[in-house]
Amino acid sequence: MSKLEKALSLVDEGRIVELAKELVGMPSVSGEEKRVAHRARDLLEGAELPVELRGGEDRPVVVSTINPEAGRFLAFNGHIDTVPIAVPEAWTRDPFDPVVEGNRLYGRGSCDMKASCGVIIHVMEILNELGVDLSVGAQLVPDEERGGTHGTLLLINEMKRGLIRRPDYVVIGEKSNLKVRVAERGIFRYDIKFHGRATHTCNARVDGVNAVARAARGVIALERHIDKYDPYIGHPVLSVNKIQGGGTVMNQVPAECTFSVDHRMITGETSETIKAEVKETLDKAGEGDPDWSWEFIAEKDEAGKYVHSPPSITGPETELGKAFYKAVPAALDREPELFVEWAGGTDGRHYRYAGIQTIGFGPNGEHAHGPDEFVYVDTLVAQAKVYLALALELEEG
Ligand SMILES: [Zn+2]
Questions:
Q1: Tell me, what's the pLDDT at 126?
Q2: How far is the CA of 112 from the centre of ligand 1 (A)?
Q3: Quick one: pLDDT at residue 302?
């Protein structure tokens, strides 16, 4: 039996479900991760894995590393916080009493992403038992749902200060439908403020310029599909998500209206190209209107550049990308596919910004952040197999 066959034979669906239930069964809304972090520590310790808690006492980061001295370091990152329940009545099951029904494991955080943290623990158990000439770590973090300051960013700061070892490769266990997620869109947020001229409602057509009506035309013009595409990230997406206009009274034509745009960027887009396209679109929308007046507003940094998070990529041509492209067929006997249809943000961007090769690979499930969230159990098993094949690939490579 090859080492890979041996590793794959050790993957135990029952154990994965057990670990996942332990974590999902414990509420851990962002800010309240302490209990689940301690549970994760106990599970790792119970499996005779080294474990330490870093970061804040109330919001610990759970770190486990085997073979810390080995030549290269592969870390698996998962977040242990979840979003709140929101509307309890919308759930048809107890969100904190995880149950398996057929191939589905239900519960808050099952899909996003505590079941995946269970997979990471199981993979650590197997690699520890098997022995591997590679440093392998589990980095189970709080605070992902609120930006990562107390979780992944804290770890990256500790890496920069030399307090903990910097991984050569990071795998993010967020849902990816067993596809390889090599990139994430960037984020650029800006406001468009329309200017009008206030007057009495009765004079609206005489000397008024209604900023709300102008802004409405601006929103319609901007809210559109953007015909650009990156094979690793997909299309850019923008959405007008807030609008504010008018004054406090109902008998006055509004002189101002501001709407806010959340633009998810792909490669080739910059804050400046986006601003130029907004100008082109709005200039066209206002053609022939002598009172069409608006301004572009976005936060700037000290150097005078617009604040934004650029898109980030660890392509298939990188060492980690190549290893994934071998691991997926080795573990699942099928060709790897790229995950591009929903490239929302994960903690992966923080590692990539720090120059660390980072790829996402995780299970399939539905209703993350919603009622009756679930994960498909067979995809957790497949995830574990790919992680093992990846570790052995990197051990050899
Ligand atoms: Zn998540």
A1: 98
A2: 4
A3: 96
* 3-state SS record for the chain: CCHHHHHHHCCCHHHHHHHHHHHHCCCCECCCCHHHHHHHHHHHHHCCCCCEEEECCCCEEEEEEECCCCCCEEEEEEECCECCCCCHHHCCCCCCCCEEECCEEECCCHHHHHHHHHHHHHHHHHHHHHCCCCEEEEEEECCHHHCCCCCHHHHHHHHHCCCCCCCCEEEECCCCCCCEECEECEEEEEEEEEECECCEHHHCCCCCECHHHHHHHHHHHHCCCCCCCECCCECCEEEEEEEEECCCCCCECCCEEEEEEEEEECCCCCHHHHHHHHHHHHHHHCCCCCCCCEEEECCECCCCCECCECCEECCCCCHHHHHHHHHHHHHHCCCCCECCCCCCCCCHHHHHHCCCEEEECCCCEECCCCCCCEEEHHHHHHHHHHHHHHHHHHHHC
CA of 145 to the centre of ligand 1 (A): 7
**Å from CA of 347 to ligand 1 middle:** 8
The CATH classification number of 187-297 equals 3.30.70.360
What is the pLDDT, as a whole number, of residue 343?
A: 60
> 327 C-alpha vs ligand 1 centroid, how far in Å?
23
Dump pLDDT digits (tens) for 376-386. 999 999 999 99
CATH number of the domain located at residue range(s) 3-183+311-396 in this protein: 3.40.630.10
Ligand 1: centre distance to CA 152 (Å): 12
Q: What is the pLDDT of residues 29-80, one digit of tens each?
A: 999 999 999 999 999 999 999 999 999 999 999 999 999 999 999 999 999 9
CA of 349 to the centre of ligand 1 (A): 13
Q: Which residues of the chain have pLDDT under 50?
A: none
Domain ranges across the chain: 3-183+311-396, 187-297
